[in-house]
Known about the structure:
The structure holds two protein chains of two kinds. Chain A has helices at 3-7, 10-20, 24-47, 51-68, 71-86, 92-113. By secondary structure, chain A is mainly alpha-helical. Chain A has a single domain (4-111), classed as Four Helix Bundle (Hemerythrin (Met), subunit A), CATH 1.20.120.160. In chain A, helix 3 packs antiparallel against helix 4 (51-68), helix 4 packs antiparallel against helix 5 (71-86) and helix 5 (71-86) runs antiparallel to helix 6 (92-113). By secondary structure, chain B is of the alpha+beta class. Chain B has three domains: 7-132, Rossmann fold, CATH 3.40.50; 162-387, PPM-type phosphatase domain (Phosphatase 2c, domain 1); 407-564, 2-Layer Sandwich (Heat Shock Protein 90). Chain B contains 17 helices and 20 strands. Chain B has helices at residues 15-27, 38-48, 64-75, 91-99, 112-161, 207-226, 231-245, 323-326, 337-343, 354-366, 394-397, 415-420, 424-431, 441-460, 471-486, 524-527, 538-545, and strands at residues 7-11, 31-35, 52-56, 82-86, 104-107, 171-176, 184-190, 196-203, 252-260, 265-271, 276-279, 285-288, 308-311, 317-321, 375-381, 407-414, 492-502, 505-514, 548-552, 557-564. In chain B, the strands form four sheets. A five-stranded parallel sheet of chain B has the order 2-1-3-4-5, sandwiched between helices. In chain B, strands 6-15-14-11-12 form a five-stranded antiparallel sheet. Chain B has a five-stranded antiparallel sheet with strand order 7-8-9-10-13, covered by helices on one side. The A-B interface holds A 12, 15-16, 19-21, 23, 26-27, 30-31, 33-34, 56, 59-60, 62-64, 66-69 and B 13-17, 19-20, 23-24, 27, 58, 87-88, 108-110, 112.
Amino acid sequence: MNNKIEHLDFAALAELREVMEDEFEILIETYLHDSAERVIQIQEAAKARNAEELSRAAHSFKGSCTNVGVPVLAKLCMEAELKGKAGDLDGIDELVTSIENAFTEVSQLLKEQI
Amino acid sequence: MSAKPLKILIADDNDSDRMILQAIVRKQGHTVVTAKDGIEAVEQFKAGAPEIILLDALMPRMDGFEAARIIKQLAGEELVPIIFLTSLTDAESLAKCLDAGGDDFLSKPYNRVILDAKINAFNRMRIMHSTLQSQRDLIAENNEHLLQEQQVAKTVFDNVAHLGCLHAKNIKHLLSPLSVFNGDVLLACQKPSGGMHVLLGDFTGHGLPAAIGAMPIAEIFYGMTNKGFAMTDVLREINQKLKQILPVGFFCCACMIDMSFARGDVEVWIGGLPEAVIYKSDGELIKIPSNHLPLGVLSASRFATETYRYEMSEGDRIFMWSDGIVEARNIDGDMFGEERLYEVYSDVKDPSIIFSNIKQQVHNFIGEGERDDDLTIVEVEMVAEDQLGIDGDTHLSKSALMGPVNWGLSYELRGETLKDFNPLPLLLHVIMEVPGLRLFSGQVYTILAELTSNALEHGVLNLDSSLKATSEGFAQYYALRAQRLASLDNAWVRISIDHQPENLGGVMSIKIEDSGDGFDYSGFKQAQMNKDLYCGRGIPLLVSLCRRFEYMGAGNVVEAEFAWQPE
Lengths: 114, 567
């Protein structure tokens, strides 16, 4: 899968592994657990057409994605955040679907890293 | 890594972000406490006083902005750096972080190198701030301490320096202190023989150094004046003391007067001060320029005590001032100057308002201008002695309730000592310890002065007082006196004084013997009454002061009895 290269920032992950040492596994699990909640928040906000809530959840998700080294998902979150901030929810459902798919992929790839 | 581990608070609602940050900061050697929202962050701050705070901006319950405001308020004067954790990038949001009390930002993803550098930089700032605070507190504390000390010192200083008779009716004075202490000293004291010493001194500098120098001046001035020392002796002693204690470059400009109300004259010594002025009631103005260096400059051997002497009638006034009066500046920086000062003396209708006129003129001239020196001026008026309004020497009689009343002493002066030593101050010092006797110090002084001088000049030196009847003889008398003093051999004068209480007062018996040949005193009762002769002047006075006065032995022994009772 050539997606691997796009979805994960291996340099960032290597650094994290060095910093976290034994806790790297717990960190990834925590990230995946939190992220699952964020995805649900984003889905619900999009469904309710709540632009502010959508922006908040996407902003927070973007932050942790950046830290863990998941650039594609982070970029999708930023798009959602900007849309929410602008109050422009056109095509939001497609974007949320992309986030869901990317997260599913990232989850699988990260689990392989543990 | 910083030298000393710090306690760092990390507040972030995102679990994975918080874990990463915590791991990074711990790896740098610091202790970490964590919070999941603003409320927890404030609680952790209260509980543990972390030194640096990493604070997420957006958190549930209480956001980072609110938490930052509360924490900064709680920290008070202490600097607790707050670094906002944010992936916000728009200017408005970043400004909001700073407005809430944030000191910096850290953006995601976290960079270990930058985070380490920021923590170290803020720790340096925190330490610097804390040093600054403690030094400021120290300075404030020292300053308060200093002011307290100055207050105490001022009390002591005022007690020492403002004793005396500045309140006498013939004295008007103005002392305006520039700081807690005045660089100027103004002292006035009545002499045992009547008359009055007044000294105005202006120290280089102000404040504590000037005040410290003023203390010995006051001590010497009052001490020696009370004991009957002459003005020049007082000045010599002050000069020597100041020369000894003051650092180089510090000295005291001074003007001292010895006003005799009985003789109606004034003796003036002036060193370094602006010229003093005598204003006579007929309008004549006599300027007395400084002709000496200030006190504390010259060594004792080079110190000069030449004085000016002026006759003064009742109502004549002498004025002394420090350069603060002449150099007082107005708002434009111009000096008041001598011309304006002397202007006050022209066309005077009522001499009694000269003093207040000068005060008024200087005050008007200065206006809003700054005072850059002490303004001190004193006026001493020649009056009849009983017009001084000094009742019973209040400060002198304080110690008169208790003291020695029943005693005797014998004091013998021999050889060299006889030539240049004046025993009067020492004897008066002992005698004046008798409670209540100080009020008669003038008479006691006169009796002792006459008797000791007679014993030396007529007894030991065998000088003929009749020589003094003519002016040529007067000069010859003193030439002989010096000549015979120089060739003295085995001479002595013995002074015996005995004091015993009598009713509320006492009787002082004085016996003076000398090594001279004596004289035929069989006809002395007749001779003494010859008041026209200059020579015998002392004897009638002594007879009038003493209850008993008689010569004995070969005429080289004299006994006198002075009886006194308080009024």
